[in-house]
Amino acid sequence: MSAGPPLLEVDGDGRATITLNRPQHLNRLHREDLAALQAHIAAVAANPAVRLLVITGRGRAFCAGFHLGELNEAEAASADPQAFERMVDALEGLPQPTLARLNGGVYGGATDLALACDFRIGSAGMELRMPAARLGLHYYPSGLRRYVNRLGLQAAKRLFLLGEAVDAAELLRIGYIDAVAEVDQLDAEVDRIAAALLAGAPLAVAGMKASLNEIARGDLDLTRLRGREARCAASDDLQEGLAAFAARRAPLFHGR
Length: 256
What we know:
Low-confidence stretches: none
CATH architecture of the largest domain: Alpha-Beta Complex
CATH topology of the largest domain: 2-enoyl-CoA Hydratase, Chain A, domain 1
Strand order of the largest sheet: 1-2-3-5-7-10
Number of strands: 10
Mean pLDDT: 94
Distance between the termini: 38 Å
Largest sheet: 6 strands, mixed
Number of helices: 11
Number of domains: 2
Shape: globular
Helix content: 40-55%
Strand content: 15-25%
């Protein structure tokens, strides 16, 4: 497989996978990669057959973040300075549940890319480092907000202001990752979480994901939440879920 922009694959079981594809450079993200990721995220959002997105990387690292060399290039002045932020925000805003398969180290902006996913499964030997302060960078607002919302103020200060490498066990303790697996068990753990997400009714999963994220950001609109609640209450999926529960069988949901 040749290196280049991220790849998107959609399986027949409703699972899509985005694979970061520059393993020789620890899957650092170039400007063209941001555009490809934005396009892949939009394609997933528009595809009703996709019920789950997994994002991972090739090689020994998940992602080294944005290619810092491009910050100093001449065209940087004319490039969109919010491209990375918008891409990560679009990932967080996907209606489908998202799962980061952290196959190795997570650095810089990639820490927020993973944090924008609903779940993160880490490999036992991974580490995380956010070097913004060591580089003289002030991070963008939605990324700072995500850190504080998901990890708490003190953990966010520790990761941003100290800039220290943090191992998998500590990332699990502070809640950055949801589970840690040995390298040879990583796919099995990802598959376990994916299966649980795919077992849920799509309308209920998407609705509650959106409502929970709004609550975390402090921008819950009760009218929107009630609308999602009503849509699920009137759905064929609810009738199927109740019938399956009564018959003691697995439900077959269709997202309507």
